[in-house]
């Protein structure tokens, strides 16, 4: 026995982006809405989000270079992240829809309030939220890795987060 697990799918070949997505789909993530306020407010659904550092308190979000958010974020000083609650799949789908209205209009069908520090929209009912100052950004291939320094944050202890796994939105299973 070599200690290696037998692959369930064929081994990935460099450049096979479809298989790469399938493989990464085995890793469950939370679902967030990243927002920027100001003169050009914008939001997007993102599951490429993670904590980076406790001191200073840093998080990262990865943004596709072709996304509208890429240009908006590059001009922003602040952004916010709302970690969606299990009941907010509709909000996730709304901010993932390329056909939604742009600017302030995209927030008209969503319950939100401006962050006290950043002014960026925070999704009401979210399981958690952070307001961040743009700290640094790095090349990440076809994405930009954006680091934010948390300036304010909160969590609703009574809410489970919405999950994304295997290409589908999911919820925690009830404990028995």
TrEMBL record:
Residues 24-171 form the Flavin reductase like domain. It comes from the Bacteria. The keyword Translocase does not apply. The keyword Transmembrane helix does not apply. SUPFAM superfamilies: FMN-binding split barrel. GO terms for biological process: pyrimidine nucleobase catabolic process. Keywords: Oxidoreductase. GO terms for molecular function: FMN binding; riboflavin reductase (NADPH) activity. PANTHER family: FLAVIN REDUCTASE (PTHR30466), FMN REDUCTASE (NADH) RUTF (PTHR30466:SF1). This is Flavin reductase (DIM6/NTAB) family NADH-FMN oxidoreductase RutF. It comes from Actinomadura livida. The lineage of its organism: Bacteria, Bacillati, Actinomycetota, Actinomycetes, Streptosporangiales.
């Amino acid at each position: 026995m070599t200690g290696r697990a037998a692959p369930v799918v064929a081994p990935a070949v460099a450049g096979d982006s479809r298989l790469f997505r399938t493989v990464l789909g085995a890793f469950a993530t939370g679902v967030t809405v990243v927002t920027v306020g100001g003169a050009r407010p914008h939001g997007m659904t993102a599951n490429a989000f993670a904590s980076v550092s406790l001191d200073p308190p840093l998080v990262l979000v990865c943004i596709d270079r072709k996304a509208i958010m890429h240009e908006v974020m590059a001009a922003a000083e602040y952004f916010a992240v709302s970690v969606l609650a299990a009941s907010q799949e509709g909000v996730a789908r709304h901010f993932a829809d390329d056909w939604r209205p742009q600017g302030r209009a995209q927030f008209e069908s969503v319950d939100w309030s401006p962050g006290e520090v950043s002014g960026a929209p925070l999704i009401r009912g979210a399981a958690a939220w952070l307001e961040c100052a743009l700290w640094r950004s790095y090349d990440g291939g076809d994405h930009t890795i954006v680091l934010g320094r948390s300036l304010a944050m909160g969590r609703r202890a009574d809410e489970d987060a919405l999950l994304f796994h295997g290409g589908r939105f999911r919820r925690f299973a009830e404990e028995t």
